[in-house]
């Protein structure tokens, strides 16, 4: 058993020592000087670091016809010796009367273009256009999820602070890990996903999030909250992670409010509150049943901006056991060795919630479509 535990800890990592909150340099520190930075084409380059990291491109699509879809590329490196890539698609069953259509496929013959802006593999291409404002996604990796999509940015992309990155390590000049998020929070989508049963017309709105976890994921974050809220006029987005106790259980919360052609606010003065929870018996995590999301900051012209989305989440869309494919005895040991028990709870309430937005004392209230995730890891 000791041999097995030591072998497993080399793969998934044991809990780290208590370094304290000073061992994370949150992007919120950057945001004190620069609330956010507008993304350029160069900011969209793949990093493909040769050390343990997970790099992702995630697209969330809300079709005008009512379909909710996630398309995701995951590129990971383990200890600089093993690189893998997976292409994932998920078509959510918003009616709750059947299964979601979930596909995940390993990729072969991975290649980046010369400028590290586009990605290809056998039967897959994710291509950034010359203007740097649109991605095309074409995939026949899985015959039950043939993807032909175009996602075009309609508002400036942003990263919180100067580069959207929080750094981990006791020596700020030589960090041993990092966490980076950037956002295209308001996009137009056209195209389709074709399954064996039907073709889904995905014309509508979307979000694109490139991210990089430059360390073992469960060492960087113990919990996550994510919100994608789309109204006819506005897009509201927020991503929060809480570090494990090894980094002081520090919260890092980035987000923004946008409309076509404009960032109204973006930065780190945001807050997520699980206003009601229920203990989930299977995962043993306190599943949220209602959440309040709050944004606070300044607009580009110096006006005070506050916003909130608050209300019940309704019946969850899905509960994802991240280690569900791992053999049971390994999952048990992973939980005891590394303290990890990762579950993702996903929501999109049928009862619409509203964005309450106040800019310089003028309040606007608009109903919208909500997609939310709450993730518990360790």
From TrEMBL:
One of its GO terms (biological process) is lipid transport. It is a peripheral membrane protein. GO terms for cellular component: endoplasmic reticulum membrane; Golgi apparatus; nucleus. The lineage of its organism: Eukaryota, Fungi, Dikarya, Ascomycota, Pezizomycotina. Residues 54-213 form the Svf1-like N-terminal domain. It is found in: Cytoplasm; Endoplasmic reticulum membrane; Golgi apparatus, cis-Golgi network membrane; Nucleus. Keywords: Cytoplasm, Endoplasmic reticulum, Golgi apparatus, Lipid transport, Membrane, Nucleus, Transport. The keyword Nucleus applies. It comes from Penicillium cosmopolitanum. This is Ceramide-binding protein SVF1. Residues 215-378 form the Svf1-like C-terminal domain. Ceramide-binding protein that may transfer ceramides from the endoplasmic reticulum membrane to the cis-Golgi network membrane, and is thereby required for the biosynthesis of complex sphingolipids. Belongs to the SVF1 family. Its main location: cytoplasm. The keyword Endoplasmic reticulum applies. SUPFAM superfamilies: AttH-like.
